[in-house]
Amino acid sequence: MKLRPLSDSTLAQVRAEVARPRYVREACRVGWLHFGPGAFHRAHQAYYADRLLERDPRWAISAVALHSGAVRDALAPQNNLYCLAELAAAAPLRVIGALHEILVAPSERPAVFARLEAPETLLVTLTVTEKGYCLGGDGQLDLAHPEIAHDLRADGAVRSVIGFLTEGLRRRHARGVAPFVVVSCDNLPDNGPTLRAAVTAFAAERDPALARWIELEVSFPRTMVDSITPATDADLIARVAAECGLDDAWPVQRERFTQWVIEDVPAVRLADWAAVGVTLARDVSVYDRAKLRVVNGAHSMLAYLGLLRGHTTVAEAMRDLPLAHCVERLLREEVAPGLRASGSFEVGAYIEATLDRFRNPSVRHQLAQIAWDGSKKLPVRLLPSLAEAMAAGRPFGHLALALAAWMRFVVGRARARGALTDPQAERLLALGRACTDQPEHDVEGFLALTEIFPPHLARAARFRSAVAQAYLELGANGSLPDEERA
Ligand code: CS2
């Protein structure tokens, strides 16, 4: 039976068990602009916005897709309403009403700028993934990046998020409108300062006075965001139809656990964040280091090793005991010593809780999804722990193993003539095809990628031999050194 679509006019028909917006949507105003309305944004920040709207009508979101119109087209017939499923027993679905509009940047640039310039726009957030920042291997804006090079010549007809933010701020400055606060919600270390440096570098190329104004007047607080969000699949669409009684073209799902920590600077104290479960903290680095190194670092290891060993999801990979054992040792023996306890944060408990989250069988999180963009993820998730461990004379064999697993994964894709989702895909696949299974030769080729491996690390003999050794032991199918001990 064909169900009617979810929309403002059918909202009242949603089954009673489903939570609905507890505010009048028409009375809400757009005070929040977001770049990148993918599943993570819709499951995380938009959920917090939805709760803020219950007490304050200023926080409806105007979402900007930088490339694809797919989300806009799916949600337009639904008045941008969609369901959020929490993957836990007895968790009711929730209809999220926080998205006011979805703009697609290339074709709706004037509308995007109208929002960026509007004095009512107080907050701009981003989930554009690591590669969306157009950074080079040194973590600074790459002025030669094709999007950035284009935007520097484009005179306002920008395409990158860095171009949009800078041009939006320029227009506000020119009109005497106070800046918005910019909150990066991507998994980058020191995401706020990193974004600030990128925007300022872009502005400096165009107008040094604008760069100075941005440096002085615009806040880019650090954040830590966390909630595991598996991609939408057919099971979710069917579940939503059954539980809601209406059709939702693109619902989203996430684990029940969700966390958002924002650096407590005056510019973010605009909303009652505490009331909706967002933590404002003086020092976010404790949280963001732990999150990137523990949750994301272990995820990347699970993804590459898990795929080599024939698994599909994180929970399945965690049921493979030798693999789970490797991940635990990576975290407890090699990552934890680089993290410090602080206040209520305790490293051992954090690792335990993370492993529990990974074991949750209701969360069908595809390893292939996590394996994307390895060239951008490894340098921020695994290499910092590894470089510190090596410098301190601590063990780093499991970190090296995770890197070797990534190399084996790339080689496997290249040999199978498979696709690779990565901004460096072509280079990586060419490298993979040239591999001979001779560990020193193959590892050498990968370590020469200076955008990924800083030269001082790539030259270190201990590092090279640890990776080569792990590469040898893994073979093409991911055999583990811990196999017999687990
Ligand atoms: C994952 C993250 O896809 C990935 O690379 O490691 O998306 C992870 O699920 C989130 O950061 C959890 O908050």
Summarize this entry quickly:
This protein is of the alpha/beta class and 486 residues long. The protein has helices spanning 39-43, 45-53, 70-75, 109-117, 146-153, 161-175, 191-206, 208-217, 234-244, 285-308, 314-318, 321-335, 347-359, 367-371, 374-381, 383-391, 397-415, 425-433, 439-447, 455-459, 461-474; strands spanning 30-35, 60-65, 82-86, 94-96, 99-104, 123-126, 181-184, 223-226, 252-254, 259-263, 279-281.
Regarding CATH, which class of the largest domain? Alpha Beta
Total helical segments: 21
Tell me the fraction of residues in β-strands, as a range: 5-15%
Taking the alpha carbons of the first and last residues, their distance comes to 50 Å
Question: What does this protein look like?
Answer:
- The chain is α/β, with parallel strands linked by helices and 486 residues long.
- It folds into 2 domains: 271 residues, Rossmann fold (3-Layer(aba) Sandwich); 201 residues, N-(1-d-carboxylethyl)-l-norvaline Dehydrogenase, domain 2 (Orthogonal Bundle), CATH 1.10.1040.
- Helix content is 46%, strand content 10%.
- It has 21 helices and 11 strands.
- A 5-stranded parallel beta sheet has the order 5-2-1-6-7, sandwiched between helices. Strands 4-3-9 form a 3-stranded mixed beta sheet.
- Helix 6 crosses helix 7 and helix 19 packs across helix 21.
- The longest helix is centred in the middle third of the chain and has 24 residues.
- The radius of gyration is 23 Å and the shape is globular.
- The mean pLDDT is 96.
- Bound molecules: D-mannonic acid.
- The site of D-mannonic acid has 10 residues, from helix 10 and helix 14.
- D-mannonic acid binds next to helix 10 and helix 14.
